[in-house]
Amino acid sequence: MRRCLALFVLLSAIACGPKPSVPEAEPTGVPDEAPADAGADPVAEKPTLPVIENVTTLPDENPDPDIVEVTLTAQPSKQTVAGLALDLYTFNGQFPGPLLQARKGNRVIVHFKNELPEPTTIHWHGLRIPADMDGSPRIQSPVPAGGTFTYDFIVPDAGSFWYHPHVRANEQIEKGLYAPFVVHSDDDPKVARERYLLVDDILLDGKGFVPFLGTNHEHVRGRVGNVLLTNGSVQGEGLIAVARVGEVERWRVVNTANARTMVLSIENAEFRVVGTDGGPLPAPYYVDKLEVAIGQRYDLEVIYTNLGEVKLLSSVLTRNAQNEVVEVPYDVFRVEVGGPSVQSDLLVWPTAPLPVRPVDATVSMEFDVVNDPQLGIIWRVNGISHAHAPLFTFEEGQTVRMKLKNLVGPEHPFHLHGQFFSVVDDGTPASKQPGLRDVALLRGLGSLEVIAYMDNPGRWMAHCHNLEHAELGMMLELVVTPKN
Ligand code: C2O
Ligand code: CU
Q1: Does residue 138's CB lie within 6 angstroms of at least one atom of ligand 1?
Q2: Which helix (H) or strand (E) holds 11?
Q3: How far apart are CA 235 and CA 330, in angstroms?
Q4: Is 356 helix (H, G, I), strand (E, B) or coil?
């Protein structure tokens, strides 16, 4: 742990970044109003989507206002990260990959080319799209090296999502294949600015990536990194933004780490949670600290109440001089807030509360591990690892209570493909968990109860989003049969 901390300090000291750029006087990122008669107009204009700061947006190649068409290439790329030349895997040569944005109900067409030296797929994490477009290697045969595939689907829900491969994900994601995906809704309240922050950690030594799955620790705890990254940059490496007092921004946050639950807080500004994995919340709420499990998203409204520096802090566990484990704040993003101040009102989200649905079925899942004399550490659900036959079958439209129990130490961020769920009991008395989710944390030796809405028929994966646990077996399949 001490060596890890030394590396943190060392690597962040090497980095020095460009000065913050000056914001334009008028807030950008405000979508143009669609003309009132857009539907009747034979040459309908493509609506302008909000600019999302801190990420690069994929160009949309299709003039049709209801279609977003893009090209994505997975390719190796050598780039300097944390002062080291790393052999990354990237989408379109960018780390993190480019932002894909669409409006709710749009058709999205992705021309994908695999220029990696190995097979891959793209999983559109959180999007409730047809199963054959979900990038699950159980359903779509992986795209071979040099191969192509066209993803084509309608995006049904507004919110913050992300995309990443689903083949050897522990290695391909760690090497850089992850990117933001935003689906806008015409109801999104307008803010001064939107940002997407992808919080990650990677495990490096002096030469580059530490070999994958090389230690027992990595098999058991997962690959806990020693370099924290926000949008691919280390602390202080250019991720400094500017804003004005009184402005309200929307920050979309995702935890893209392999094995670290992020604990985030914001210093010197107010913030409230306005959205989760499944999109906007009917009632925003305030917290001091935000626990973001791997794969989860939070939409925050950040209100700049004071002049000066605002910091997004990530708590990192380390040892103090007395050799006790303590949480230290580490700043992963900074905003310089200047004047003159502007007047903004807090925004109101026009979101209806979730309808309450009676539960039709209850299933149980037990998460554990065995140490096989031949195979080593194997992670299991209900005694099965890498389950290739569906563990459960449901009918489209069913509401299912899932009771999860963790029989061993490490926590498991449970992820369900293709559907959303609500967390009804996260095993702690205090924590608040409103909103729809596709990932929820099953704590060490803890229990978790969720209500899943099986509204999307198909064959789906569910797995632990600790990518090492998933790779070492903690994956299962379930089937949702179409109604009729
Ligand atoms: Cu984000 Cu099955 O994964
Ligand atoms: Cu796990």
Answers
A1: no
A2: helix 2-14
A3: 8
A4: coil
Q: What token pair was written down for 14?
A: 């090497």
The tokens for 462 are 């569910």
Q: In sequence order, what E strands does 115-172 have?
A: 123-125, 148-154, 159-164
Write out pLDDT tens, residues 186-201: 888 889 999 999 999 9
Q: Tell me the Cα Rg of the chain.
A: 22
- How far is the C-alpha of 264 from the C-alpha of 426, rounded, in Å? 19
How far apart, in whole angstroms, are the C-alpha atoms of residue 111 and residue 399? 35
Give the Å distance between the CA of 413 and the centre of ligand 1.
Answer: 10
Q: What is the DSSP letter of 107?
A: E
Residues 6+ apart with CB under 8 A from 379: 367, 368, 369, 385, 464, 469, 470, 472, 473, 474
CA atoms within 13 A on the CB side of 355: 5
Give the tens place of pLDDT for each residue, 254-293.
999 999 999 999 999 999 999 999 999 988 999 999 999 9
Ligand 1 atom, smallest distance to 417 CA: 2
